[in-house]
Amino acid sequence: MSSRSSESSESSEGPVPTDPAAATDLTPKRRHLLRRLLQLYVGLTLYGVSSALLVESGLGLEPWGVLHQGLAELTGGVATGLYIAAKFGPGPRDGLMTGLHRRTGRSIRLVRTAIEVAVVATGFVLGGTVGVGTVLYALSIGPLAQVFLRVFAVPTAPAGSTVVAASPPNRAILHQ
User: Fold this and answer.
1) Residue 45: how many CB atoms within 10 A of its CB?
2) Which stretches of the chain are DSSP H helices?
3) Where in the sequence is the domain holding 145, given as residue range(s)?
4) Residue 94 falls within a domain, yes or no?
5) pTM, to two decimals
6) What single DSSP character describes residue 166?
7) What is the SS3 assignment for 154?
8) SS3 for 72?
9) Which of 99, 102, 119, 123 could make a disulfide contact with 128, Cβ separation 3.0–4.6 Å?
10) Distance (Å, rounded) from C-alpha 12 to C-alpha 20?
11) Domain count along the chain
12) 6 or 25: which carries more pLDDT confidence?
């Protein structure tokens, strides 16, 4: 029989705490990750709810919904196949916004509003439905994004945190 501490047991990956207090002790790194995940899920849920409310109210679609509807009318599943197969990763809309903000030095407010207005116009030309809610959304999302990016800014990660991209890659697709 092996001698085991009452505080932990062994697994193939090392000691596993059996004390409930030890299992719930969150390191700063884990608390940081949990906060970020919570913000992500709440934000995505609120986007979905706001889109559904616009549709239910009959006030139109949000700007990207107009573009999607217009593209779907013309292309069906082709657009989805092209988008997913491009393998640029998640978040292309926000990546476009933050990338243009960084490159041009223009405010998030201005960049996001310009993108949304261009998307609504393109979607409308392609046959998408535009309503009062669509226009209000397109004109308000930029200023709101700028405000709430500051409000919900996550403090700097604790030492040892996993960083997805610390600096620009050496062999980027788009070179400066």
Assistant:
1) 10
2) 20-24, 28-57, 63-75, 78-85, 92-104, 108-125, 132-151
3) 28-151
4) yes
5) 0.54
6) S
7) coil
8) helix
9) 123
10) 20
11) 1
12) 25
